[in-house]
Amino acid sequence: MDRFVQRFTKDRRLSLRHDLRTPVRVRIRRRDSQECVAQSENLSTNGVFVQTDLPLSTGAALDLFFEMPESVTGLPSAHWLCLGHVVRVVSGESDDSRRGVGVQFDCYEVSRPGQSQTYLSELYAER
Of 16, 1, 4, whose CA–CA distance to 73 is shortest? Predict the structure, then answer.
């Protein structure tokens, strides 16, 4: 029985998390929503954990825009526009601390250096 329980207490993530602090532009997926700049705590090709003071709950749909570094994907760094949803909310330890939010990417658009940034900018501006 111990082996069975131990098997399910291990990390079940599908991709490796990288402890990486990078700015992430975050917006609740509504036309009238303001964007804010959050700080990532860790990042993978499937999701990100960010600190933000946005009032988010599990299931909230988000748009995220950031630069994905080569160290995560193994490819040259690129700008990612991700559509995702909140899968975990961690409250701050004190009243003035920010809360953490785990976001799973549902889909994303990648723009590499040398490609036109216009498409991504226009797409992000429309949301």
Answer: 16
Read off the amino acid at residue 101.
V
DSSP string, the chain: -HHHHHHHHS---SS--EE---EEEEEESSTTPPEEEEEEEEE-SSEEEEEE-S---TT-EEEEEEEEPHHHHSS--EEEEEEEEEEEEE--SSTTSPEEEEEEEEEEEEE-TTS-SHHHHHHHHH-
Q: Where are the domains of the chain?
A: 13-126
CA distances from 26 to 2, 9, 14, 59, 61 (A): 41, 31, 23, 15, 10
The two tokens of residue 42 are 């860790």
pLDDT tens digits along 65-105 = 999 888 878 888 899 899 999 999 998 666 556 689 999 99
Phi-psi region of 74 (alpha: psi -120 to 50; beta: other; left: phi over 0): left
**pTM score of the predicted model:** 0.72
User: Does pLDDT of 59 surpass 90?
Assistant: yes
What topology does CATH give the domain 13-126? Thrombin, subunit H (2.40.10)
